[in-house]
Specification:
Elements: H1 2-24, H2 32-261, H3 264-274, H4 278-285, H5 290-315, H6 321-349
Length: 350
């Protein structure tokens, strides 16, 4: 750079001298030596410029290398400081670990004793675990059953939901129809109120006629009830008479059979032994036994129940005609059987 500056100074001086010489002399005669020097100097300048450019590039590259190395040094210094810190920390840690090792060695002795007790506990826990596993398996089975039931209930819920949606649609339709019907009802009420005023007068007269008819029908119903009650009582009375007649006929037959079996002398002998007359002896022979009395009581109770049943039918709501007919027909059939029995007994006695 200094050479370049010197050469540039020399060039400037020569240019200045040439200019001053040209001014002093009107027709200057440039010498060949100066031109050759000038060329040499220009060549030197070019060479020096090229060298300077090369050196500048090398300087730049060197500067970059220096900066990189400085950065690397800084990084290494930072690493060294970190490593030193780590080392100090590790030393502290090693000291802590040594102290802990001593404490652990002391604790190991105590833990060995506790380990034995823990092993015993582990065995007991293992047994508990096996029991719990069995209970867990049973619970899993229950869970599976519960999940199946849940799925079924979910299906039922979805079905119910679908049905509810359908019913909601129906409800909305019904509500709309209800509104329409309410409108129609209001219209009908207005027309009906007008018609009712007209009908009220007519209904008053019709009500009187209906009341009269009701009174007549009530009288007829009462007459019918009295007729049915009288009919049932008469039926029951006639049946009881038939039963007594049948009993009497049976007794007469039995007495006659006894008389036929016994001679007149034996009858008189029995009467003399008992110190009674022959007629009194016949009455003694005609006395009812216990079975006959029980039978008569049963028949009386049945008749009573039958009358109560007919009374209930008459007091019951409509329709009751078929039940009433069945009850009366039952008694009529009973009467018919009794009549046949009585007629057959009378034939044998005759």
């Amino acid at each position: 750079q200094q050479e370049k500056e010197d050469l540039q100074g020399k060039l400037k001086l020569r240019e200045h001298l040439s200019q001053t010489a040209g001014k002093s002399e009107a027709t200057p005669a440039p010498s060949k030596n100066i031109d050759s020097e000038m060329k040499q100097l220009q060549c030197k300048l070019k060479n020096s410029n090229n060298e300077i450019t090369k050196q500048l590039t090398t300087i730049k590259s060197l500067k970059k290398q220096v900066q990189e190395k400085e950065e690397r040094i800084q990084e290494l210094q930072a690493k060294i400081s970190r490593l030193e810190r780590d080392l100090s920390m590790k030393r502290h840690l090693i000291e802590d670990l040594r102290s802990r090792l001593k404490a652990n060695e002391e604790n190991e002795k105590a833990s060995s004793v506790s380990l034995e007790s823990l092993e015993r506990k582990v065995k007991a826990l293992a047994e508990d675990c096996s029991n719990k596993k069995a209970s867990i398996d049973s619970l899993k089975q229950r869970l599976n059953v519960a999940t199946k039931e849940k799925s079924q209930y979910q299906q039922m819920y979805h079905k119910a939901k679908d049905e509810l949606e359908k019913k909601d649609l129906k409800l909305t339709n019904l509500e709309s129809k209800m509104i329409e019907t309410e409108c129609a009802m209001t219209e009908l009420e207005t027309t009906a109120s007008q018609q009712l005023h007209g009908l009220a007068k007519q209904s008053g007269q019709a009500l009187e006629t209906v009341q009269n008819k009701l009174l007549l029908t009530n009288d007829k119903v009462e007459e019918f009830m009295t007729f049915v009650k009288a009919l049932t009582r008469e039926l029951q009375r006639s049946i009881q008479e038939l039963r007594t007649k049948i009993k009497q006929a049976k007794k007469m037959g039995e007495v006659r059979a006894c008389k036929r079996g016994l001679s007149q002398e034996s009858v008189q002998l029995a009467a003399s032994i008992l110190n009674v007359s022959t007629t009194d002896l016949e009455e003694i022979l005609e006395v009812e036994d216990d079975e006959e009395t029980a039978k008569t009581k049963m028949e009386f109770e049945k008749d009573k129940e039958w009358l109560q049943y007919i009374q209930k039918l008459l007091e019951a709501q409509f329709p009751f005609a078929s039940y009433l007919l069945d009850a009366i027909l039952e008694k009529l059939n009973e009467k018919k059987k009794l009549v046949e029995e009585y007629s057959s007994l009378m034939k044998y006695t005759i």
